[in-house]
Amino acid sequence: MPEIIKVQGLVKKFNDFIAVNNLSFTVDQGDVYGFLGQNGAGKSTTIRMLLTLIAPTEGCIELFGMNLKTHRNEILQQIGAVIEKPDVYKYLSAYDNLKLFARLNEKVTHQKVMDQLEVVGLASRAKDKVKTFSQGMKQRLGIAIALIHDPQLIILDEPTNGLDPQGIADIRNLILHLSKEQKKTLVVSSHLLSEIEQVATKVLIIDKGQKIIEGLSTELFDPSQTIVELQTTNNSFALQQIANSTWSGNLQQQRDIAIVLKLDKQQIPQLHKDLVSMGVGLLSLQPRHSLEDYFLQVTSGNQHVDAFTN
Amino acid sequence: MWTLLQIELYKIFKRPRTYIAFIAITSLIAIVQLGLKSDGKEYIEFILGDLKNSLSIEGQILNGYFVCYVLLQLLLVHVPLLIALIAADMISGEANAGTLRFLLTKPISRSEFILAKFLAATVYTLMLLIWLAILALFVSMVIFGTDDMIVLKNGYLVQLKADDVFWRYIGAFGFAALAMTTVAALGFFLSIFAENSIGPIVATMSVIIVATILSTMSIPLFNKIKPFLFTTHMVAWKEFFDIRVDDANASIKGTVQHPERIIRSAFVLLVHIIAFVGASIYVFKKKDILS
Fold first, then answer.
1. Which of these, A277, B20, B26, B78, is most buried using a 10 Å CB contact count?
2. ipTM of the complex
3. Do A76 and B107 touch (CB under 8 A)?
4. Is residue B54 part of a domain?
5. What is the pTM of this model?
Protein backbone atom coordinates (compact mmCIF):
# COMPACT_ATOMS: atom_id res chain seq x y z
CA MET A 1 0.00 0.00 0.00
CA PRO A 2 1.40 3.45 -0.85
CA GLU A 3 2.28 5.70 2.03
CA ILE A 4 -0.16 8.58 2.53
CA ILE A 5 1.63 10.16 5.48
CA LYS A 6 5.31 9.85 6.28
CA VAL A 7 6.58 11.72 9.32
CA GLN A 8 10.23 11.67 10.25
CA GLY A 9 11.92 13.10 13.33
CA LEU A 10 9.15 15.60 14.03
CA VAL A 11 9.91 18.04 16.85
CA LYS A 12 7.88 20.99 18.11
CA LYS A 13 9.15 23.27 20.84
CA PHE A 14 7.23 26.12 22.43
CA ASN A 15 10.09 28.05 24.04
CA ASP A 16 11.57 25.47 26.44
CA PHE A 17 8.59 23.13 26.37
CA ILE A 18 8.91 20.19 23.99
CA ALA A 19 5.41 19.32 22.81
CA VAL A 20 6.47 16.74 20.22
CA ASN A 21 9.79 14.97 20.48
CA ASN A 22 11.38 13.15 17.58
CA LEU A 23 8.17 11.55 16.37
CA SER A 24 8.18 9.30 13.30
CA PHE A 25 5.34 7.29 11.81
CA THR A 26 3.75 6.29 8.55
CA VAL A 27 0.14 5.95 7.50
CA ASP A 28 -0.65 3.73 4.52
CA GLN A 29 -3.50 4.15 2.06
CA GLY A 30 -6.72 2.68 3.45
CA ASP A 31 -5.57 2.77 7.09
CA VAL A 32 -7.75 3.95 9.89
CA TYR A 33 -4.88 5.26 11.94
CA GLY A 34 -5.65 5.58 15.63
CA PHE A 35 -3.68 8.30 17.32
CA LEU A 36 -3.82 7.69 21.04
CA GLY A 37 -2.57 9.66 23.98
CA GLN A 38 -3.71 11.43 27.11
CA ASN A 39 -4.76 15.07 26.95
CA GLY A 40 -1.61 17.10 26.38
CA ALA A 41 0.35 14.16 24.97
CA GLY A 42 1.04 16.00 21.72
CA LYS A 43 -1.68 14.55 19.46
CA SER A 44 -3.30 17.84 18.50
CA THR A 45 0.07 19.53 18.03
CA THR A 46 1.12 16.75 15.66
CA ILE A 47 -2.15 16.91 13.75
CA ARG A 48 -1.88 20.69 13.49
CA MET A 49 1.60 20.25 12.04
CA LEU A 50 0.16 17.82 9.46
CA LEU A 51 -2.31 20.54 8.49
CA THR A 52 0.27 23.38 8.47
CA LEU A 53 -1.46 25.19 11.32
CA ILE A 54 1.75 24.88 13.34
CA ALA A 55 5.26 24.95 11.91
CA PRO A 56 7.53 22.10 13.06
CA THR A 57 10.74 23.03 14.86
CA GLU A 58 12.49 20.09 13.22
CA GLY A 59 11.59 17.11 11.10
CA CYS A 60 10.03 16.29 7.77
CA ILE A 61 6.42 15.67 6.80
CA GLU A 62 5.43 14.09 3.51
CA LEU A 63 1.87 13.55 2.40
CA PHE A 64 0.88 11.73 -0.79
CA GLY A 65 4.61 11.50 -1.53
CA MET A 66 5.02 15.30 -1.53
CA ASN A 67 6.84 17.53 0.91
CA LEU A 68 4.31 19.50 2.96
CA LYS A 69 6.46 22.61 2.98
CA THR A 70 6.75 22.86 -0.77
CA HIS A 71 3.38 21.42 -1.89
CA ARG A 72 1.09 22.78 0.82
CA ASN A 73 -1.97 23.69 -1.25
CA GLU A 74 -1.74 20.60 -3.45
CA ILE A 75 -1.71 18.43 -0.34
CA LEU A 76 -4.43 20.27 1.57
CA GLN A 77 -6.71 19.95 -1.46
CA GLN A 78 -6.77 16.21 -0.76
CA ILE A 79 -7.39 16.47 3.00
CA GLY A 80 -10.56 16.97 4.98
CA ALA A 81 -10.09 17.76 8.66
CA VAL A 82 -11.96 18.52 11.82
CA ILE A 83 -9.72 19.85 14.59
CA GLU A 84 -11.16 19.41 18.07
CA LYS A 85 -14.65 20.89 18.13
CA PRO A 86 -15.83 21.97 14.70
CA ASP A 87 -16.53 25.67 15.13
CA VAL A 88 -18.42 27.27 12.28
CA TYR A 89 -20.20 30.60 11.77
CA LYS A 90 -23.08 30.60 14.24
CA TYR A 91 -24.92 33.43 12.49
CA LEU A 92 -25.08 31.44 9.23
CA SER A 93 -27.24 28.42 8.41
CA ALA A 94 -25.87 24.89 8.02
CA TYR A 95 -26.32 25.22 4.26
CA ASP A 96 -24.49 28.56 4.08
CA ASN A 97 -21.64 27.30 6.26
CA LEU A 98 -21.17 24.18 4.18
CA LYS A 99 -21.28 26.09 0.90
CA LEU A 100 -18.91 28.76 2.21
CA PHE A 101 -16.25 26.29 3.35
CA ALA A 102 -16.70 24.09 0.27
CA ARG A 103 -15.97 27.04 -2.02
CA LEU A 104 -12.50 27.27 -0.50
CA ASN A 105 -11.77 23.95 -2.22
CA GLU A 106 -13.93 24.09 -5.33
CA LYS A 107 -17.21 25.32 -6.74
CA VAL A 108 -20.15 23.32 -5.45
CA THR A 109 -23.70 22.93 -6.67
CA HIS A 110 -26.81 23.31 -4.54
CA GLN A 111 -27.47 19.59 -5.02
CA LYS A 112 -24.01 18.60 -3.79
CA VAL A 113 -24.42 20.68 -0.63
CA MET A 114 -27.84 19.18 0.05
CA ASP A 115 -26.55 15.66 -0.64
CA GLN A 116 -23.74 16.15 1.85
CA LEU A 117 -26.15 17.47 4.47
CA GLU A 118 -28.29 14.40 3.80
CA VAL A 119 -25.30 12.11 4.44
CA VAL A 120 -24.76 13.63 7.90
CA GLY A 121 -28.50 13.81 8.66
CA LEU A 122 -28.85 17.59 8.61
CA ALA A 123 -30.83 18.10 5.40
CA SER A 124 -34.02 18.93 7.29
CA ARG A 125 -32.16 21.65 9.26
CA ALA A 126 -30.27 23.05 6.26
CA LYS A 127 -31.71 26.55 6.55
CA ASP A 128 -31.52 26.79 10.36
CA LYS A 129 -28.83 28.97 11.91
CA VAL A 130 -26.02 26.97 13.51
CA LYS A 131 -26.48 28.80 16.84
CA THR A 132 -29.60 26.64 17.34
CA PHE A 133 -27.65 23.37 16.85
CA SER A 134 -26.58 20.85 19.51
CA GLN A 135 -22.91 19.86 19.87
CA GLY A 136 -23.58 16.62 18.01
CA MET A 137 -25.20 18.45 15.10
CA LYS A 138 -22.26 20.87 14.92
CA GLN A 139 -19.91 17.89 14.87
CA ARG A 140 -21.83 16.33 11.98
CA LEU A 141 -21.78 19.64 10.12
CA GLY A 142 -18.02 19.86 10.71
CA ILE A 143 -17.60 16.40 9.23
CA ALA A 144 -19.77 17.37 6.25
CA ILE A 145 -17.47 20.35 5.67
CA ALA A 146 -14.43 18.06 5.86
CA LEU A 147 -15.93 15.59 3.39
CA ILE A 148 -17.69 17.71 0.78
CA HIS A 149 -14.71 17.97 -1.56
CA ASP A 150 -14.26 14.19 -1.48
CA PRO A 151 -10.77 14.16 0.11
CA GLN A 152 -8.52 11.09 0.07
CA LEU A 153 -7.33 11.64 3.62
CA ILE A 154 -9.61 12.54 6.52
CA ILE A 155 -8.18 13.77 9.82
CA LEU A 156 -10.46 13.82 12.84
CA ASP A 157 -9.03 15.21 16.06
CA GLU A 158 -10.99 13.97 19.09
CA PRO A 159 -14.18 13.64 17.01
CA THR A 160 -16.32 12.31 19.85
CA ASN A 161 -15.47 14.96 22.44
CA GLY A 162 -18.59 16.34 24.08
CA LEU A 163 -20.96 13.96 22.30
CA ASP A 164 -23.68 11.83 23.87
CA PRO A 165 -23.56 8.00 23.42
CA GLN A 166 -25.72 8.15 20.29
CA GLY A 167 -23.47 10.86 18.82
CA ILE A 168 -20.38 8.75 19.58
CA ALA A 169 -21.95 5.71 17.90
CA ASP A 170 -22.88 7.82 14.85
CA ILE A 171 -19.30 9.06 14.46
CA ARG A 172 -17.93 5.54 14.88
CA ASN A 173 -20.28 4.22 12.20
CA LEU A 174 -19.36 7.08 9.90
CA ILE A 175 -15.64 6.33 10.30
CA LEU A 176 -16.23 2.66 9.50
CA HIS A 177 -18.39 3.62 6.52
CA LEU A 178 -15.75 5.99 5.15
CA SER A 179 -13.07 3.38 5.57
CA LYS A 180 -14.86 0.29 4.31
CA GLU A 181 -17.33 1.64 1.76
CA GLN A 182 -15.50 4.68 0.44
CA LYS A 183 -11.96 3.36 0.91
CA LYS A 184 -10.76 6.57 2.56
CA THR A 185 -7.64 6.88 4.68
CA LEU A 186 -8.39 8.25 8.14
CA VAL A 187 -6.35 9.55 11.04
CA VAL A 188 -8.45 9.59 14.19
CA SER A 189 -7.06 10.92 17.45
CA SER A 190 -8.51 10.20 20.85
CA HIS A 191 -7.56 9.91 24.48
CA LEU A 192 -9.93 6.94 24.81
CA LEU A 193 -8.56 3.54 23.86
CA SER A 194 -12.05 2.01 23.64
CA GLU A 195 -12.94 4.39 20.81
CA ILE A 196 -9.82 3.70 18.81
CA GLU A 197 -10.04 -0.05 19.40
CA GLN A 198 -13.36 -0.22 17.58
CA VAL A 199 -12.30 1.54 14.40
CA ALA A 200 -8.51 1.60 13.95
CA THR A 201 -6.52 -0.71 11.72
CA LYS A 202 -3.23 0.73 13.00
CA VAL A 203 -2.48 2.43 16.31
CA LEU A 204 0.12 4.87 17.55
CA ILE A 205 0.32 5.73 21.22
CA ILE A 206 2.20 8.86 22.20
CA ASP A 207 2.99 10.33 25.56
CA LYS A 208 4.83 13.55 26.39
CA GLY A 209 5.30 14.05 22.67
CA GLN A 210 7.12 10.75 22.16
CA LYS A 211 6.10 7.57 20.42
CA ILE A 212 5.37 4.79 22.92
CA ILE A 213 4.20 2.10 20.56
CA GLU A 214 2.96 1.72 17.00
CA GLY A 215 1.45 -1.37 15.45
CA LEU A 216 -1.41 -3.09 13.74
CA SER A 217 -4.63 -3.30 15.71
CA THR A 218 -4.84 -7.03 15.04
CA GLU A 219 -1.58 -7.43 16.94
CA LEU A 220 -2.09 -4.82 19.63
CA PHE A 221 -5.68 -5.83 20.31
CA ASP A 222 -4.91 -9.57 20.19
CA PRO A 223 -7.66 -11.39 22.18
CA SER A 224 -5.03 -13.67 23.76
CA GLN A 225 -3.71 -10.58 25.52
CA THR A 226 -6.78 -9.98 27.64
CA ILE A 227 -6.27 -8.94 31.23
CA VAL A 228 -8.84 -10.04 33.79
CA GLU A 229 -9.09 -8.22 37.07
CA LEU A 230 -10.66 -10.14 39.95
CA GLN A 231 -12.08 -8.67 43.11
CA THR A 232 -12.93 -11.24 45.76
CA THR A 233 -14.16 -11.39 49.33
CA ASN A 234 -10.76 -12.80 50.38
CA ASN A 235 -7.92 -12.07 48.00
CA SER A 236 -5.31 -14.16 49.89
CA PHE A 237 -7.51 -17.24 49.74
CA ALA A 238 -8.36 -16.64 46.10
CA LEU A 239 -4.70 -16.16 45.20
CA GLN A 240 -3.74 -19.41 46.95
CA GLN A 241 -6.50 -21.31 45.13
CA ILE A 242 -5.50 -19.92 41.75
CA ALA A 243 -1.80 -20.62 42.37
CA ASN A 244 -2.62 -24.27 43.05
CA SER A 245 -4.85 -24.63 39.98
CA THR A 246 -4.29 -24.89 36.22
CA TRP A 247 -4.66 -21.08 36.11
CA SER A 248 -1.36 -20.49 37.94
CA GLY A 249 0.44 -19.85 34.65
CA ASN A 250 -1.98 -17.04 33.87
CA LEU A 251 -1.41 -15.25 37.13
CA GLN A 252 0.22 -11.85 36.62
CA GLN A 253 0.23 -9.89 39.83
CA GLN A 254 -1.79 -8.97 42.83
CA ARG A 255 -2.74 -5.37 43.17
CA ASP A 256 -4.07 -3.66 46.28
CA ILE A 257 -7.62 -4.71 45.75
CA ALA A 258 -7.50 -7.07 42.80
CA ILE A 259 -5.87 -10.17 41.37
CA VAL A 260 -4.75 -9.94 37.75
CA LEU A 261 -4.61 -12.76 35.21
CA LYS A 262 -3.68 -12.76 31.55
CA LEU A 263 -5.63 -15.10 29.32
CA ASP A 264 -7.47 -15.60 26.04
CA LYS A 265 -10.84 -13.84 26.02
CA GLN A 266 -12.52 -17.18 25.19
CA GLN A 267 -11.28 -18.69 28.49
CA ILE A 268 -13.21 -16.22 30.67
CA PRO A 269 -16.37 -18.39 31.10
CA GLN A 270 -14.24 -21.35 32.19
CA LEU A 271 -12.29 -19.20 34.67
CA HIS A 272 -15.55 -17.98 36.15
CA LYS A 273 -16.81 -21.57 36.51
CA ASP A 274 -13.55 -22.75 38.13
CA LEU A 275 -13.40 -19.85 40.61
CA VAL A 276 -16.91 -20.66 41.79
CA SER A 277 -16.03 -24.35 42.15
CA MET A 278 -12.89 -23.41 44.16
CA GLY A 279 -15.11 -21.56 46.60
CA VAL A 280 -13.77 -18.10 45.76
CA GLY A 281 -16.22 -15.36 46.76
CA LEU A 282 -16.22 -13.38 43.56
CA LEU A 283 -17.19 -9.70 43.83
CA SER A 284 -16.29 -8.78 40.26
CA LEU A 285 -14.53 -10.13 37.18
CA GLN A 286 -13.50 -7.38 34.84
CA PRO A 287 -11.88 -8.14 31.50
CA ARG A 288 -9.61 -5.36 30.30
CA HIS A 289 -7.55 -5.40 27.22
CA SER A 290 -3.87 -5.61 27.92
CA LEU A 291 -3.29 -2.59 25.68
CA GLU A 292 -5.66 -0.54 27.81
CA ASP A 293 -3.65 -1.50 30.88
CA TYR A 294 -0.48 -0.68 29.08
CA PHE A 295 -1.88 2.62 27.83
CA LEU A 296 -3.06 3.70 31.25
CA GLN A 297 0.15 2.68 32.97
CA VAL A 298 2.47 4.28 30.47
CA THR A 299 0.55 7.45 30.00
CA SER A 300 0.18 7.98 33.72
CA GLY A 301 3.94 7.83 34.08
CA ASN A 302 4.27 4.34 35.55
CA GLN A 303 6.35 1.38 34.44
CA HIS A 304 5.26 -0.95 31.66
CA VAL A 305 2.87 -3.69 32.67
CA ASP A 306 4.62 -7.03 32.51
CA ALA A 307 1.57 -8.63 30.96
CA PHE A 308 2.12 -6.71 27.77
CA THR A 309 5.85 -6.68 27.44
CA ASN A 310 6.44 -10.31 28.43
CA MET B 1 -8.34 35.42 -4.45
CA TRP B 2 -11.64 36.70 -5.87
CA THR B 3 -13.49 33.76 -4.30
CA LEU B 4 -11.84 34.45 -0.96
CA LEU B 5 -12.82 38.12 -1.14
CA GLN B 6 -16.40 37.22 -2.02
CA ILE B 7 -16.55 34.85 0.95
CA GLU B 8 -15.14 37.46 3.32
CA LEU B 9 -17.59 40.12 2.12
CA TYR B 10 -20.43 37.64 2.43
CA LYS B 11 -19.44 36.96 6.05
CA ILE B 12 -19.08 40.66 6.90
CA PHE B 13 -22.44 41.68 5.48
CA LYS B 14 -24.27 38.66 6.89
CA ARG B 15 -23.21 39.59 10.42
CA PRO B 16 -25.59 41.78 12.41
CA ARG B 17 -22.69 43.64 14.08
CA THR B 18 -21.71 45.13 10.71
CA TYR B 19 -24.87 47.22 10.58
CA ILE B 20 -24.27 48.88 13.96
CA ALA B 21 -21.90 51.31 12.25
CA PHE B 22 -24.42 52.15 9.50
CA ILE B 23 -27.19 52.67 12.07
CA ALA B 24 -24.89 54.81 14.26
CA ILE B 25 -23.92 57.06 11.34
CA THR B 26 -27.52 57.38 10.19
CA SER B 27 -28.64 58.35 13.70
CA LEU B 28 -25.84 60.88 14.24
CA ILE B 29 -26.38 62.57 10.89
CA ALA B 30 -30.13 62.69 11.35
CA ILE B 31 -29.70 64.31 14.79
CA VAL B 32 -27.29 66.96 13.47
CA GLN B 33 -29.46 67.67 10.41
CA LEU B 34 -32.54 68.00 12.59
CA GLY B 35 -30.70 70.33 14.97
CA LEU B 36 -29.41 72.54 12.16
CA LYS B 37 -32.79 72.61 10.45
CA SER B 38 -34.49 73.88 13.59
CA ASP B 39 -31.74 76.12 15.09
CA GLY B 40 -29.31 76.57 12.19
CA LYS B 41 -29.36 80.37 12.18
CA GLU B 42 -28.25 80.58 15.83
CA TYR B 43 -25.48 78.09 15.06
CA ILE B 44 -24.25 80.17 12.11
CA GLU B 45 -24.26 83.33 14.24
CA PHE B 46 -22.34 81.50 16.92
CA ILE B 47 -19.56 80.26 14.61
CA LEU B 48 -19.26 83.58 12.76
CA GLY B 49 -18.88 85.42 16.08
CA ASP B 50 -17.65 88.99 15.62
CA LEU B 51 -17.20 88.47 11.85
CA LYS B 52 -20.88 89.01 11.27
CA ASN B 53 -20.45 92.64 12.39
CA SER B 54 -17.65 93.35 9.88
CA LEU B 55 -19.00 91.32 6.94
CA SER B 56 -22.07 91.60 4.86
CA ILE B 57 -23.04 88.14 3.70
CA GLU B 58 -25.78 87.55 1.20
CA GLY B 59 -27.32 84.26 0.25
CA GLN B 60 -27.91 81.08 2.18
CA ILE B 61 -24.94 80.21 4.40
CA LEU B 62 -26.76 77.29 5.98
CA ASN B 63 -26.88 75.12 2.85
CA GLY B 64 -26.22 71.47 2.08
CA TYR B 65 -22.51 71.98 1.40
CA PHE B 66 -21.98 73.77 4.69
CA VAL B 67 -23.95 71.15 6.65
CA CYS B 68 -21.90 68.38 5.06
CA TYR B 69 -18.66 70.10 6.11
CA VAL B 70 -19.93 70.40 9.69
CA LEU B 71 -20.92 66.72 9.65
CA LEU B 72 -17.55 65.61 8.30
CA GLN B 73 -15.70 67.57 10.97
CA LEU B 74 -17.83 65.92 13.63
CA LEU B 75 -17.96 62.37 12.28
CA LEU B 76 -14.51 61.71 10.89
CA VAL B 77 -13.25 61.74 14.47
CA HIS B 78 -15.67 58.95 15.45
CA VAL B 79 -15.75 56.84 12.31
CA PRO B 80 -12.39 55.17 13.21
CA LEU B 81 -14.12 53.48 16.16
CA LEU B 82 -16.77 52.06 13.84
CA ILE B 83 -14.11 50.85 11.44
CA ALA B 84 -12.08 49.31 14.26
CA LEU B 85 -15.16 47.31 15.28
CA ILE B 86 -14.88 45.31 12.08
CA ALA B 87 -11.21 45.59 11.03
CA ALA B 88 -9.79 44.68 14.44
CA ASP B 89 -12.09 41.68 14.53
CA MET B 90 -11.11 40.25 11.16
CA ILE B 91 -8.52 37.75 12.44
CA SER B 92 -9.06 37.79 16.20
CA GLY B 93 -12.79 37.19 15.73
CA GLU B 94 -12.07 34.09 13.66
CA ALA B 95 -9.58 32.87 16.26
CA ASN B 96 -12.08 33.46 19.05
CA ALA B 97 -14.87 31.68 17.19
CA GLY B 98 -12.57 28.75 16.39
CA THR B 99 -13.14 29.13 12.64
CA LEU B 100 -9.59 30.25 11.91
CA ARG B 101 -8.15 26.75 12.22
CA PHE B 102 -10.94 25.38 10.02
CA LEU B 103 -10.26 27.99 7.33
CA LEU B 104 -6.51 27.45 7.34
CA THR B 105 -6.81 23.72 6.75
CA LYS B 106 -8.16 24.63 3.32
CA PRO B 107 -5.87 24.97 0.29
CA ILE B 108 -5.42 28.72 0.46
CA SER B 109 -2.14 30.49 1.09
CA ARG B 110 -1.84 32.59 4.22
CA SER B 111 -0.79 35.65 2.20
CA GLU B 112 -3.89 35.39 0.04
CA PHE B 113 -6.00 34.86 3.12
CA ILE B 114 -4.65 38.02 4.78
CA LEU B 115 -4.96 40.09 1.60
CA ALA B 116 -8.54 38.95 1.01
CA LYS B 117 -9.45 39.76 4.59
CA PHE B 118 -7.85 43.19 4.42
CA LEU B 119 -9.52 43.96 1.10
CA ALA B 120 -12.85 42.95 2.62
CA ALA B 121 -12.24 45.30 5.56
CA THR B 122 -11.36 48.03 3.05
CA VAL B 123 -14.57 47.44 1.09
CA TYR B 124 -16.50 47.71 4.36
CA THR B 125 -14.70 50.99 5.10
CA LEU B 126 -15.55 52.35 1.66
CA MET B 127 -19.18 51.29 1.98
CA LEU B 128 -19.36 53.12 5.30
CA LEU B 129 -17.93 56.28 3.73
CA ILE B 130 -20.25 56.05 0.73
CA TRP B 131 -23.17 55.77 3.14
CA LEU B 132 -21.78 58.75 5.03
CA ALA B 133 -21.51 60.71 1.77
CA ILE B 134 -25.05 59.87 0.72
CA LEU B 135 -26.50 61.04 4.03
CA ALA B 136 -24.17 63.93 4.83
CA LEU B 137 -23.88 65.43 1.35
CA PHE B 138 -26.78 64.38 -0.86
CA VAL B 139 -29.48 64.30 1.81
CA SER B 140 -28.22 67.63 3.21
CA MET B 141 -28.34 69.12 -0.32
CA VAL B 142 -31.96 68.01 -0.56
CA ILE B 143 -32.92 69.31 2.89
CA PHE B 144 -30.92 72.57 2.95
CA GLY B 145 -30.46 73.34 -0.74
CA THR B 146 -27.20 74.53 -2.33
CA ASP B 147 -25.41 77.86 -2.46
CA ASP B 148 -21.90 79.24 -2.09
CA MET B 149 -20.00 77.62 0.74
CA ILE B 150 -18.34 79.46 3.59
CA VAL B 151 -15.50 77.76 5.44
CA LEU B 152 -14.00 79.33 8.53
CA LYS B 153 -10.24 78.76 8.67
CA ASN B 154 -7.71 79.90 11.27
CA GLY B 155 -7.88 83.69 10.96
CA TYR B 156 -9.65 83.89 7.60
CA LEU B 157 -12.84 83.01 5.83
CA VAL B 158 -12.95 81.02 2.58
CA GLN B 159 -15.82 81.48 0.19
CA LEU B 160 -16.32 78.79 -2.45
CA LYS B 161 -18.69 79.26 -5.34
CA ALA B 162 -21.55 76.76 -5.43
CA ASP B 163 -20.39 75.33 -8.76
CA ASP B 164 -16.85 74.91 -7.35
CA VAL B 165 -17.72 72.74 -4.34
CA PHE B 166 -18.94 69.33 -5.45
CA TRP B 167 -15.61 68.14 -6.87
CA ARG B 168 -13.96 69.17 -3.58
CA TYR B 169 -16.27 66.81 -1.73
CA ILE B 170 -15.35 63.98 -4.11
CA GLY B 171 -11.70 64.71 -3.29
CA ALA B 172 -12.38 65.01 0.44
CA PHE B 173 -14.29 61.73 0.59
CA GLY B 174 -11.60 60.04 -1.49
CA PHE B 175 -8.97 61.28 0.94
CA ALA B 176 -11.11 60.26 3.93
CA ALA B 177 -11.31 56.77 2.40
CA LEU B 178 -7.50 56.63 2.40
CA ALA B 179 -7.35 57.87 6.01
CA MET B 180 -9.97 55.39 7.20
CA THR B 181 -8.26 52.55 5.31
CA THR B 182 -5.15 53.38 7.34
CA VAL B 183 -7.21 52.93 10.51
CA ALA B 184 -8.55 49.65 9.10
CA ALA B 185 -4.99 48.50 8.36
CA LEU B 186 -3.88 49.33 11.91
CA GLY B 187 -6.85 47.49 13.45
CA PHE B 188 -6.28 44.57 11.10
CA PHE B 189 -2.60 44.33 12.05
CA LEU B 190 -3.39 44.34 15.77
CA SER B 191 -6.07 41.69 15.32
CA ILE B 192 -3.40 39.16 14.32
CA PHE B 193 -1.96 39.09 17.82
CA ALA B 194 -5.15 38.42 19.76
CA GLU B 195 -7.70 35.67 20.17
CA ASN B 196 -10.57 37.95 21.11
CA SER B 197 -11.86 41.11 19.47
CA ILE B 198 -11.97 43.47 22.44
CA GLY B 199 -8.19 43.74 22.82
CA PRO B 200 -7.40 44.83 19.25
CA ILE B 201 -10.42 47.18 19.09
CA VAL B 202 -9.37 48.94 22.29
CA ALA B 203 -5.71 48.89 21.21
CA THR B 204 -6.58 50.47 17.84
CA MET B 205 -8.54 53.26 19.48
CA SER B 206 -5.81 53.78 22.07
CA VAL B 207 -3.16 54.15 19.35
CA ILE B 208 -5.35 56.64 17.49
CA ILE B 209 -6.07 58.67 20.63
CA VAL B 210 -2.42 58.81 21.69
CA ALA B 211 -1.22 59.63 18.17
CA THR B 212 -3.92 62.31 17.76
CA ILE B 213 -2.86 63.96 21.01
CA LEU B 214 0.77 63.89 19.88
CA SER B 215 -0.27 65.31 16.49
CA THR B 216 -2.14 68.24 17.99
CA MET B 217 0.20 69.19 20.87
CA SER B 218 2.69 71.93 20.03
CA ILE B 219 5.63 70.72 22.06
CA PRO B 220 9.09 70.77 20.40
CA LEU B 221 9.82 67.19 21.46
CA PHE B 222 6.69 65.91 19.69
CA ASN B 223 7.05 68.22 16.67
CA LYS B 224 9.87 66.02 15.36
CA ILE B 225 7.69 62.91 15.18
CA LYS B 226 4.49 64.62 14.05
CA PRO B 227 5.24 64.36 10.30
CA PHE B 228 5.52 60.57 10.67
CA LEU B 229 2.25 60.03 12.56
CA PHE B 230 -0.66 58.99 10.38
CA THR B 231 -3.04 60.97 12.60
CA THR B 232 -1.27 64.19 11.57
CA HIS B 233 -2.21 63.48 7.97
CA MET B 234 -5.73 62.14 8.46
CA VAL B 235 -7.20 65.67 8.55
CA ALA B 236 -5.66 66.74 5.25
CA TRP B 237 -9.08 66.32 3.57
CA LYS B 238 -9.78 69.87 4.81
CA GLU B 239 -7.18 71.17 2.36
CA PHE B 240 -9.71 70.60 -0.43
CA PHE B 241 -11.74 73.47 1.04
CA ASP B 242 -9.01 76.09 0.86
CA ILE B 243 -8.80 77.97 -2.43
CA ARG B 244 -5.86 79.69 -4.12
CA VAL B 245 -6.09 83.45 -4.70
CA ASP B 246 -4.50 85.61 -7.40
CA ASP B 247 -2.51 88.82 -6.92
CA ALA B 248 -5.73 90.82 -6.61
CA ASN B 249 -6.80 88.46 -3.79
CA ALA B 250 -9.54 86.96 -5.94
CA SER B 251 -10.30 83.23 -5.67
CA ILE B 252 -9.16 81.03 -8.54
CA LYS B 253 -11.91 78.58 -9.30
CA GLY B 254 -10.98 74.88 -9.38
CA THR B 255 -7.81 75.24 -7.28
CA VAL B 256 -6.69 74.32 -3.79
CA GLN B 257 -4.31 76.42 -1.75
CA HIS B 258 -1.82 73.65 -0.86
CA PRO B 259 -2.12 70.64 -3.17
CA GLU B 260 1.34 69.48 -2.11
CA ARG B 261 0.06 68.97 1.43
CA ILE B 262 -2.67 66.66 0.17
CA ILE B 263 -0.19 64.67 -1.91
CA ARG B 264 2.32 64.40 0.95
CA SER B 265 -0.33 63.32 3.43
CA ALA B 266 -1.79 60.78 0.99
CA PHE B 267 1.71 59.37 0.49
CA VAL B 268 2.33 59.05 4.24
CA LEU B 269 -1.02 57.31 4.73
CA LEU B 270 -0.30 54.96 1.84
CA VAL B 271 3.07 54.06 3.34
CA HIS B 272 1.34 53.31 6.65
CA ILE B 273 -1.19 51.06 4.91
CA ILE B 274 1.51 49.15 3.07
CA ALA B 275 3.57 48.82 6.26
CA PHE B 276 0.64 47.54 8.35
CA VAL B 277 -0.53 45.06 5.72
CA GLY B 278 3.02 43.92 4.95
CA ALA B 279 3.69 43.38 8.65
CA SER B 280 0.39 41.51 8.96
CA ILE B 281 1.37 39.10 6.19
CA TYR B 282 4.86 38.63 7.62
CA VAL B 283 3.65 37.92 11.17
CA PHE B 284 0.72 35.76 10.14
CA LYS B 285 2.79 33.55 7.84
CA LYS B 286 5.00 32.64 10.79
CA LYS B 287 2.21 32.35 13.35
CA ASP B 288 1.29 29.03 14.94
CA ILE B 289 -2.47 28.65 15.00
CA LEU B 290 -3.22 27.43 18.50
CA SER B 291 -6.79 28.70 18.84
1. B26
2. 0.80
3. yes
4. yes
5. 0.82
